[in-house]
Amino acid sequence: MENTAIRVRELRQRYGEFEAVAGVSFEVARGELFALLGTNGAGKTTTLEAVEGHRAAQSGEVRVLGRDPYRERRAVRPRLGIMLQEGGFFADLTTAETIDHWRGFVEDPRPRDELLDLAGLREQAGVRARQLSGGQKRRLDLALALTGRPEVLFLDEPTTGMDPEARHATRRTVAELVRDGLTVLLTTHYLEEAEQLADRLAIMHRGRVVASGTVAEVVGGHGDRVRFRVPPDVPVADLPVLRGVAAGIEVDAGHATATYTLPPDDLQPGVYGLLRWADERSLALPGLRVDNASLEDVFLSTAGAES
Ligand SMILES: Nc1ncnc2c1ncn2[C@@H]1O[C@H](COP(=O)(O)OP(=O)(O)OP(=O)(O)O)[C@@H](O)[C@H]1O
């Protein structure tokens, strides 16, 4: 069995003259959760639609479970679960009836109670779809996407509109499914969701992938930051160079703050050098702190830089 669940190579999609996806490539291994992140309009949904088989790749190659998801839709589609952004429920059916209705369409469906539990909707089994909260509707969407025991699950902003508890529960459910071998392609605007769940991710901006890899790889290349307020009697020019990195200085209301951005391997020796330098001069370094770069830092500097 091929180990690659999704392969996208040099995908290009145009709307008229506008190239919404401009040569996107990525691969998702079986059993992996891959997050596609990006600014509004970056091309995530357009990419997802090509991978789900809703639209043909205009140029480039898309393979899902080794097949073309558009041309070989009948073979591929039953093996996919797609959580829709806006589920089209029948307003008057209850949660349980909606699930049963859906179970009628697929071969070998998951049992209704298992789906209610996966979605955390057991207590809402008898509630009509129109009376569910926004977050509960999204959870029902998730249950429906899981009905046919998919091998690959597509989650397009799954936790948008959920309260923090429902979001947490949904993420836990997804993490458990991935642990059990499910492959997931996720888009989200919650960077902490990607940070928590993704084995690997890609950040898209204006139709292109601008960063990709594991969270550690994407964030790691960005460096850790050491900061402190420059003591009043220390000239900025006297600050040490740490592992070849000079201090960046920001001045706010007459106070200078020094920041060193160090590669991860240089963090410990860099901090040690700084503390020794301060010790030798009997200096206190007010407000000293070390921050890891976060996915948000990378996102803002790669995807957000020109917007
Ligand atoms: N049917 C369409 N006709 C013309 N332009 C479109 C169409 N669908 C999308 N676009 C444009 O293509 C670009 C990519 O849209 P897409 O929905 O793929 O982005 P996205 O990354 O999913 O954005 P968001 O995070 O806002 O959902 C956007 O500039 C959008 O306006």
TrEMBL record:
Against CDD domains, the record matches this protein to: ABC_DR_subfamily_A
According to its record, how does it sit in the membrane?
Answer: Peripheral membrane protein
Give the location in the cell.
Cell membrane
Q: Which organism is it from?
A: Actinomadura harenae
**What SMART domains does this protein's entry cite?**
AAA
Question: Record's PROSITE patterns?
Answer: ABC_TRANSPORTER_1, ABC_TRANSPORTER_2
**Keyword set includes Heme:** no
What keywords is this UniProt entry annotated with? Antibiotic resistance, ATP-binding, Nucleotide-binding, Transport
What is the name listed in the Swiss-Prot or TrEMBL entry for this protein? ABC transporter ATP-binding protein
Main localization, broad class: membrane
- What Gene Ontology molecular function terms does this protein carry? ATP binding; ATP hydrolysis activity
Q: Which GO terms describe its biological process?
A: response to antibiotic
* ABC transporter domain sequence ranges: 6-231
Cellular component GO terms, alphabetically? plasma membrane
